[in-house]
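Hi all, long-time lurker, first post. I run a small reading group and we've been trying to get comfortable going from sequence to structure in the token notation. Rather than ask abstract questions, I figured I'd post a concrete chain and ask someone more experienced to write out its structure so we can walk through it together at our next meeting. Sequence below, copied exactly:
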Amino acid sequence: MNYWLFKSEPGTWSWDDQVKKGKVGEGWDGVRNYQASNNMKAMKVGDLGFFYHSVNEKRIVGIVEVIEEYHPDPTDPKERFGMVTVKAVEDMPKPVTLADVKAEPKLAEIALVKQSRLSVLPVTPAHWKLLCKMGGL
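-- Answer (accepted) --
Happy to help. Here is the structure in token form:
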């Protein structure tokens, strides 16, 4: 199993929106960056990811599971990019802020800090475990 972090602007697609989709989940569409797209191509059904509210909140608020592997993104008129489908798994009991991440020396090399503009990021198993602990899981 691999671990990921999915960033979303809460005004566009929020954790509450994701939770409301239930078991059917939602396609993670709109990604137009090749590195983020390649990250999604590497995802397998059952992989887990953090759901991160970007912009003003800048915090991990939940956990999602990949339920459908990379497939065409119908919102891409040029048909260059695809998406995965994810479903909500659980809330993060204590949201983990970007400030929390930056304050933890063990997370200095996490992609969230190193590649802050990327919308879909890999998370190492060690970082996953630590972030879950920080979030009360």
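A couple of things your group might point at:
The beta strands are 3-8, 26-27, 48-53, 59-72, 82-97, 120-123.
The first strand starts at residue 3 and ends at 8.
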